[in-house]
Amino acid sequence: MASEEEDFKAVASDPANWFRKSRALRRKGDMAFWDLTEKADGAKEKPDEWARAMVDSIQIAQMLHGLALETAFKGVMLKKNPESIKFKMEKAREGDGEEARITEIGVPLNRGHDLVYLAEKAGLFDDPDLMGPEGEAPVIRKILEAITKSVNWGARYPAPRQQSDVGIRLEGVPRRAIGHYYLDFIGPVLDRLHKWHEDKSH
After folding, report:
1. What is d(CA 58, CA 53) in angstroms, rounded to the nearest whole number?
2. CA–CA separation, 69 and 43 (whole Å)
3. pLDDT value for 41
4. Of all helices (H) and strands (E), which one includes residue 101?
5. By CB count within 10 A, which of 48, 71, 115, 127 is most buried?
6. Are residues 52 and 43 in contact, defined by beta-carbon separation less than 8 angstroms?
7. Does residue 39 register a pLDDT over 70?
8. Which CB contacts under 8 angstroms, 24+ apart, belong to 9-13?
9. pLDDT at 40 over 70
10. Which residues contact 78 (CB under 8 A, 6 or more apart)?
């Protein structure tokens, strides 16, 4: 019979579990995104409130899609290299024993929400099966950078810890691509990530 430590490590190390979470988060992100259309009714009566509600809704949808991307990227890394997850034994929070703690999943945990970094480590920009059409990489990078901000603070707080975290340098990428058109780019990326896992699992 497997121990609790072995069960914990087995669940955390299985790429299928990360892709299952990714698909669930993607579904909720899609629901939050399409909820934006219901807010259009208030545009004429209270345009300022409507605009703020739209930004909040986009950031919440981006957070969910960002977490879907994060878990998919980690699933890719685990599928490619099962040794990419690292554990450390430390004193248990309860009792006198020890417990396992995850210290790394392809990247150090303090970089675990950085979607650009995760995408690079997962090989998104180097694998044509994952990246898709040529020329989209600069746009995808900027969208991932924007979504990272939504994951880290935009969807949860009115302001970040540092003023410099508020903006983003677009560098030629249309602003709408990181706003209400972001899903036109990120949706296909998630599709390709999930298909990649299905193909590798057969």
Report:
1. 9
2. 31
3. 58
4. strand 98-105
5. 115
6. no
7. no
8. 9/87, 9/100, 12/85, 12/87, 12/102, 12/105, 13/78, 13/82, 13/85
9. no
10. 13, 14, 15, 18, 84, 85, 105, 106
Joined together, the tokens standing for residue 170 give: 């677009």
Q: Determine the longest span between alpha carbons in the chain, in angstroms.
A: 64
For residue 8, which amino acid is it? F
Q: Report, as an integer, the average pLDDT of 166-170.
A: 80
Q: How far apart are CA 44 and CA 1, in angstroms?
A: 64
Amino acid (1-letter code) at residue 112: G
Length of the chain, in residues: 202
CA distance 85 to 82: 7
pTM beyond cutoff 0.85: yes
Q: Which sequence spans correspond to the domains of the chain?
A: 4-201
pLDDT of residue 50: 72
Give the number of other Cβ atoms within 10 Å of residue 53's Cβ. 15
User: What gap in Å lies between CA 121 and CA 19, rounded to an integer?
Assistant: 17
Angle subtended at Cα 9 by Cα 8 and Cα 15, rounded to the nearest 5 degrees: 110
Please report, for residues 109, 130, 143, 144, the alpha-carbon distance to residue 138 in angstroms, rounded to integers and kept in the order given: 25, 15, 9, 10
- What are the C-alpha distances in Å from 109 to residues 24, 70, 169? 22, 12, 26
